[in-house]
Structures
1.
Amino acid sequence: MHITPDTLIIFQWGPVSLNGTIFFTWCVMALMVFSSWLITRKLSTETHLSRWQNLVEVLVTGIRDEIRDISSHDPDKYLSFVGTLFLFIAVSNLLSIVPGYKPPTGSFSTTAALALCVFVAVPLYGISQKGLSYFKQYIEPSVFMLPFNIIGEISRTFAMAVRLFGNIMSGTIIAAILLTIAPLIFPVLMQILGLLIGLIQAYIFAILAMVYIAAATRVQRKEEETGRQSEKGDLLNG
Amino acid sequence: MLIDWFTVIAQVINFLVLVYLLKRFLYGPIIRAIDERERKIALRLEEASRKKEVADLEAENYRRKNREFNERREEMFSQIKEEVEVRRKDLINEARNQVDAGRTKWYEAIQREREAFLQDLRRRAGRQTCAISRRALKDMADVDLENQIIHVFIERLLSLNRDEIKALKESIHQLPQKISVRSAFKIPGKPAGEIKKALRNQAGGHVDVQFEVSPDLICGIELKLEGSRISWNVDDYLETLEESLLAALESKAEKVADRLSDK
């Protein structure tokens, strides 16, 4: 029994090995991209929609609304990153009902990779909004807070990775254990619970990423507000 | 070790590729489609709003025309009513005039018929009276009616009053032609001579007398003078009969006329 699909070797060619995590990730990617291509191949701009187009429009619109609620910004800037995080994790988890499939999110390497992406994306979005002055927030309220801020960034990234990995891996292992103890009915219920947990984890991961990004961009807004207030004060004083 | 750094890097790359692919095949087209649909819906709403404005204008226009049409219809209706009333009065007057004219014609025709009837009656009654008298005189007194008439006429001539004699004389002098004695029958020579003699006696001189037979004089004899005449005939007797008949006829005609007007 494999705790993580990293240890499941699908293909070995000399020093290069294709493990289960990468393989199933590709499967998920292929499925998502192919489905997207199929659905968006003939999009209707009229009021009558196909069911699949309606589904993806509901998904995309829902994600945009969530992003708009959290960031109060134009959601399209973050949609690709946050939406892909959510959809990838959600599809990876939901496919766990397919026999023989191992969710790549059950691999710590995958969750770490996703958390790393968030870890890098947050300052990138911050810098793209504010420039290098983004880094000022690490020395606030005082320069002595710099190590703690950095540790906070790293720890929250680590927490994201561990949280997702733990939830999915535990779900898979529990299902496997239950199959040996009580092979009838009970594993099905746990599987259903696992699907729910998988969706919730996808939502949590994406929302957390968006919250971090929003926090990074909110710094600038605070400064803008402060700037506007000082201008007002100047006008009043002057 | 749960973490495999090669896999981590591979997954980062995979994720970035997936981000790009989904942006290319999912988010981009879907957002474009949604934006396009929103634009179309906005256009349609705008178009609908414009059409509604046009429709409102049209509806207002229609209501105004309808109102004008109703007003015009009422006006025309009252005008036609007035014209009909005038026409009705004209027709009634025309009919009344026609009825009056017909009634007048009818009265005239009745009048003419009555006169013709009375004329005829008078003539027949006179003749019948003459015939009866002649027969009665012949049967009872063995006297000829004509001779008796001539006798009465001569006595009448001889008993003329002063004014009549004066008129006779003036007529004789003024008239260039002969004095005409008209009778319903031919006067034989002897009675004619007696008449001439009686005239001569009254006129006091020569008198040229011409005797004429006139069937109009029913059973009578007449001498016409200037402005007057001396005669004896049944006409005088028939006058009374005619008057009574006329009164009876008029009363009958009035009753008929009243009945007709009632109808």
2.
Amino acid sequence: MNAFFAAYLAQDGLSNGAIYCLLALALVLVFAITRVILIPQGDFVSYAAISFASLREGRVPGTVGLMLALTVLAVAIELARDRNRFAPRVLRLAAAPLLLAALAEISPRLHLPAVVDALLATAMVAALGPLLYRIVYRRIAAASTLVLLIVSVALHFVLLGMGLYFFGPEGVRAEPLIDLAFILGAVPIKGQSLLILATCAVLAAALFAIGERSLIGKALRAASINPTGARLMGISTEWSGSLAFLVAALIGGVSGVLISSTTTLYYDSGFLLGLKGFVAGILGGLASFPLAGAGAFALGLLESFASFYASAFKETIVFALIIPILLWRSLAARTGTD
Amino acid sequence: MRAERIAPGLAIAAIATAPAWLGAYQLALLTYVGLSAIVALGLVVLTGNAGLSSFGQAAIVGIGAYVAAILTTQAGLSPWLTLPAALAVCGLGAWSGGVVMVRLSGHYLSLATIAFGAAMYFLFGGLEITGGQNGLSVPDTLFEGAALNYAIVWAALLANMTMLANLLDSRMGRAIRALKEHAAMAEAMGIDTNAAKSGVFVIACLMAGLVGWFYAYFQRFVNPSPFSLAAGIDYVFMAVLGGAEMLWGAVAGAAIVTLLKPVLQARLPWLLGAAGNFEGVVFGAIVILLFQFAPEGLLPRLRAWLGWSGLRARAVSGGQLPSGHGISAGEVLSVEGARKSFGGLLANADVGLTVNASEVVALIGPNGAGKSTFFDLVTGATRADAGAFRLGGQTITGLSTRAIARRGLARSFQHVRLVGDMTAIENVALGAHRRGARSMLSSMLGLGRAEERAFLATALHQLERTGLGHLAWQNAASFALGQQRILEIARALAADPILLLLDEPAAGLRHQEKQALATMIRALRSDGLAILLVEHDMDFVMALADRVVVMEFGRVIASGKPRAVQADRRVQEAYLGAPLAAPAGEALS
């Protein structure tokens, strides 16, 4: 392999790594706050990519139907749970999805610029997060990690089938947000790669700042470390769970919009991406953001070079790698007795 | 009660007569139900009973199938020679993988199996020897005819169920059922929890390998798709749908998923007006709803609805387990210079203590004095920085909890650790674990019946000795706290110990319960047992203990007869503070 190829593969690896990094951050966040291992994270990615592509083509994306269906379900559950003064709660649940749906409905006639379409697609996917948390996880928030994981896997299958129904089986590929390419040294650099890396850096920094510095971040961490204690201090675990899912879906949405131009995506493409986000997240023991980030870039590079040397075994190598790492993390995590 | 007993019999009768009233297509479908049920059965033991998860069982089925297919097509081996090969590969693989697996805790294990399932699927599709995505055609068949295949598979299923039922109802079975929530307690009962975990894993993988081997000759074609991660997830769904704790749950779950799938595949696209596989939505939604409303699974829910408890008293007869030692005399426990620090905190500084046979020694002191740390050092739960520990004349310094338990130490826990969904008699029999010898294999083959009778007789004796005999066949979770504490003592006694460690046995007990406990402890003392207890109830301690040892800030500040200790000035100051008149520094000197 010559230096040109190496640089090319490295660029590919780094931009994929940035996506894995974003997904890993979302997974670590959700796990830390709710103990849910969010297998559906990848589905958010494909939903967003397909929604963005539909909007670009001047069609109303299937996400609208999905979002409205979930809103109706969430409102019905809210009604069944407690009918006292439910109007403000329902309004809080339904306002954002209804607004976004209305916007998406009229968007084909407005011929919006690509950036607005990107924001709209991301926002619609982000809205799914809290809805899913309320419908699926709230009632079983105290269940064991294994039960939450099995439910996550089940939810992934539901979302996969819904994706097929609302989006159809066709693959999509959108135009890049930044149509820029230049040559640095002898290596062609793609603008979209730089955009992906920059977005990753900004989001990671924002998450870090919010998590470490703000009162919201402190409340979220309190809710994850000691839910009962946090509740006594007036921090609702329902609020923290919904917020974690909102951020995770938002990150999934951003990732989906960003990669929609780099590869053809189908309704079921997200799963493998999410799984690789996991491999990265696990590198950080599902607890440390910096380690998860580093793991993501290492994984992106490994995958990129593995595809060159042993393309038939690319996926096997990536997933087999996880087991020794899990062992290491598990041994490192078990410091106390019992 | 009667319906509950005949229900499995009726099910077996329906299974046995099925070929008489079903066609070839239905029988083939039921053959697939049986194959899936065998894999799900492994998960019932693994997940439902031992609390270990695996999303990678489909990959193990795949390994069994590919071993059979490759050996048949490449080496021309007969199916009866590939069977031991397939089982050997799956069993040895599980055994060596188990070394890694038992060290993965909780969600790490789940994720590792997901990664394993994904990696194996891509490996099956990427290798040349497996035929890649095109797969391999298998020339041989095992049995001709739908009815014969059906009969063989269901006979194998029922044989596996019988073996697992034998296993769960044995010494090792109780150990397996304690793994889910109480691994540390199980170690304190002398159970090798790592060996139990890897044993269960090997059993589940052997069953999956058996299914894979059969599948290769039944389907006569092997390709990666039935062994994908999604298929592995299906097996987990089957187990949790039916009821992951019940063996019949695996059959129910496998039947629901396998029979419903073709119906949904045919109807849903028509219903939705779109082509594609939508059955995942239905199964996913069912599993989500299940955990919201009936997390224990459909079959246990049905059983509860019908009012079947699943518990029934059995006649217990025959002799008890042999006792390992005679009545001991003299010094049973001796500790010298025990030291343990946590960072900058010196929790135990040169603590020394002896307990003799037929003696009750009480360890007391204010909160944070280091009593619990000392207990942990003696039982081996925490390793001491320094100190010499001897039990029954043997050095136990640095040994594991399990090894110390085997040398005659038994304990109760400050926070009760009972297996709530096991009966009282089973919980007590758990304590006797180290006195038995039957392995998983011999229990599965039904060779452990005599020993099991002795286990139950021993457990019942201890329950009667502690006054709980009438509650032997009730679930431990239904006991009041006081009864649970006594049950813990009965469990400790079943270990046939020479030293009994009781961690706050009177906490939360009512006055009369405390009196009964004191009477019982005196009786144990007169039987020759050495007893060390930590307790905060001073009336209880002073009336019962032969000697009292008082700790404060990690050191022993006084020891002796209760009356002498009560009169000790330092002890009074430790509990009540120094007298106002004298400065604290002077009072201590």
